[in-house]
Amino acid sequence: MAHYADRQGGAGAPARRCALAGIVMTAKVTALLSPWLDKELTVWRLLAVTLLLAALNSVALGLASVVRGLELGLLLPIAILGTLTGWTLAATSWPGWWAGAIAGSAGVVLMTVRVGRLDGSILALLGQLVGLAWQALRWPGNGPPDTTPLQSTLAGLWLGVVTLWSRLLEWVANMAGGEPVFDPAATALAWGVALWLVAAWSGWAVRRRDQSLLAILPAGALLVISMAYGGGNFAFLLLLLGLTWLLAALVEHTVRERRWQVEGIDFALEIRTDLTLATLWLVAGLVALAQISPVISAQALAESAQRLIWGQPLQPGPLARSLGLQPPPGQSGVFDQARLGGLPRRHLLGAGPELSQQVALLVQPDSQAVNRYHYWRSLTYDRYTGYGWVSGQTETTTYGAGEAIEPAFEVGQPAVVLTEQIQAAAQGNGLLYAAGALLAVDQPYQVAWRRPGDAFGATVAAASYQVTSLLPAAGEAELRQAGNRYPAWVRQRYLALPREAPVRVLALARDLTATQPTPYDRARAIESYLRTLPYDLNLPPPPNRDVVDYFLFDLRRGYCDYYASAMVVLARAAGIPARLVVGYAGGEFDPAQGRYRVSEADAHAWAEVYFPGYGWIEFEPTAARPRPERAVESASLPEMELVTPPALAPAGRIAWQPGWGWALLLALAGLALASVVWSAADSWALARTDPTTTAVRLYRRLQRYGSRLAVPAPPGATPYEFSEALISQIALLTSNLPTSNLPTSSLPASNLQPPTFQPSNPSTSLRTSLPTFQPLAPAAPEIERLTGLYVNAVYSAHPPSAGEQRQAIQTWRRLRWRLWLAWARLKVERFRWER
What we know:
This protein has 26 helices and 15 strands. With about 850 residues, the protein is an alpha+beta fold.
């Protein structure tokens, strides 16, 4: 498995050549050793489980390439352990429903521990239990054991589990309510459990049922659907196809060898070598053809899945993003690079900032804001490139002096309206500075809008101006209760990260916030973590790599640009909308003149997090700056008029439109799951009866299906005559005869004219009545087998054995769907005939 783990960034030609060479070498070694190994298929088990593990690992690799925040360190162990769990359970005598319950429960527990980082708590709990047992042994001399540490650990463990599953339920509820949001912990839990289940099923289906294609089908569907949303490297899908074909050839030939051994048919062991080489050449050719053919390419498979779900090619939507699937980049518009502006002078994270004591701003605030720590906002950035920040495409609007703009702020929430007189330095750059959301300026000004309510920044020609702004004043309690029902434009723009975002950055965000109950607590956890890193201005320029990854894992120190960038990226990775803001912070208050003196040294970059109903709230991840002060609840503010924003023009809400295709897919999946559960329960009930009762019940079911297929059982007909007529009817239904030849249920049985049955040789007569090239050809021997078992059970002195009972149940499970298909064909043909 290390071979695949080393290539988590992609599966190029070298990886495919190495994988193919490894498979060829394994096959040759196996062929050389097979004559010396026992015939109980030890080699088959080894090769089958190896191919299964390789196939499921290819699914894990594919998911890691398209699902945001899923790293191979999480997915590969899940794929391996899930497959081995299903393989091991298949070796037991437990029924499928019981083994499935065990496997599913194990997967849920394992993912809860892994995603919630509860392994440390569990180990501590085990250690405390051992210590408690030791104290109990020494009780007579040292008094009763102290259970306080154990209770504390149990409480912390339970709180982590409850918090994690509460986040999952909230994530599901948001999707059900039509407002899906991305939550990294819930997404990792959901994808991990899904991968575990399909891996466990694959191991079970191959070993217990000898059905390789059915074993890989759920895993393949999981990979195809994820790629239909998120694109990704289709080499993983090709690798899965190749491994599946190899596994199918291995399983089918092994089943054939077992049958030959049971029937006493002699065969040469050299056939294994010939078959292995032929299969390898065939699979290599098919994979190569799939890669170069425009008709059967892997891309076509994903596009087919898109059309099945939506009826048209994929349109990005919030549901896909909430699942961590980032649609592949298409034709994007031209984004403006960061404008020339105030400090940080190099918001693209170049060399260290240029600091000086030159005055940048003189700010005379309201009296109510004198003792506040101020942030004067100039520019906001929404798009992280991996090397710095840029703004999305903007449209500039000109406003007259005193003309108010439309604030994107909810009515009735606690807020402060600030009016400040600002004088910029003579060498100013024309950028407008305001504490909070801009409302109006007493001079003509311009605002660059990404959309209504989402400003990139503003400019003003005058060096001195009075600015009115709106500052949210929510306390911690209100922010914790704000929830995560973000507007569509916020989810689309301020949760976005580059598709190449380093996996360890995403994993760090998940680990820091997995057990935090609210978006506010998660943002505070990220802020607190970053503030533990030392502040340092003397840094080399970042190398040609992701700067946040470089800061978090290599530098481990930095200045405000690094802290703010890391805060925004980690918040977005944790499912919290955030943006980077540049401007000035702090300053020195001059009581004599009643104003702040803001120097170039106060140039700053910080993070802002969006809270529904409150707008953008400042967070301070830089260790050298004080945190913004927030009351436990809303601050007690003097009476002032709250701004009532006018209704904004619709900005084109991006919502997921599932269409009928998605509903049909869910319905079919539900029916398939229900049929599997029902089949397992029916098989379990049949196995609990005695063999004679089972034989009688199965024959009665054959008669009921015969009645549905217009083959009633006359009172004087023998079981063999009835089965002969039933097989003839199925042969007629699967042939290309005119529909007028099909009888209706009102016809007597004599009109069916079944072929004459010869009791001395029933096998030949029954099997030759059904064309062997038809899909339902196996129905003939299966009907014959159940009929013979019934005759032995009712008329013979030797009742069926337990082994024959198990074979009959397995036969019925295969025959049942063939009879249902024949009945459906009869209904369709009768409808066409009547029309």
